[in-house]
Write a structure and sequence with these properties.
Blueprint: H1 5-17, H2 22-37, H3 42-52, H4 55-71
């Protein structure tokens, strides 16, 4: 992995200030980014759970899945 020199210097400064290694600091930053940037809101997950609870909701979710799949530009499932 390549990091720009100025970014790496900032990472090192911040890691030292927190008394942790560069590696640990980067792992922590990546874990936080993955948890916040790719997560769905609790409200959205609750709505999905509610939709799965009845036949009509499951039917609508399947219709949505089919529509999304039809509009995809890649052939395989998302990673």
């Amino acid at each position: 992995m390549h990091l720009p020199v100025d970014l790496l210097a900032s990472v090192d400064r911040q890691a030292r200030a927190l008394a942790m290694s560069r590696n640990r600091y980067i792992i922590r930053a990546l874990e936080r980014a993955l948890a916040t940037e790719t997560g769905w809101s609790a409200e959205f997950l609750e709505a999905l759970g509610s939709a799965r609870a009845d036949v009509e909701g499951r039917r609508e979710m399947e219709d949505l899945r089919v529509a999304v799949a039809a509009g995809r530009t890649r052939k395989g499932p998302p990673l």
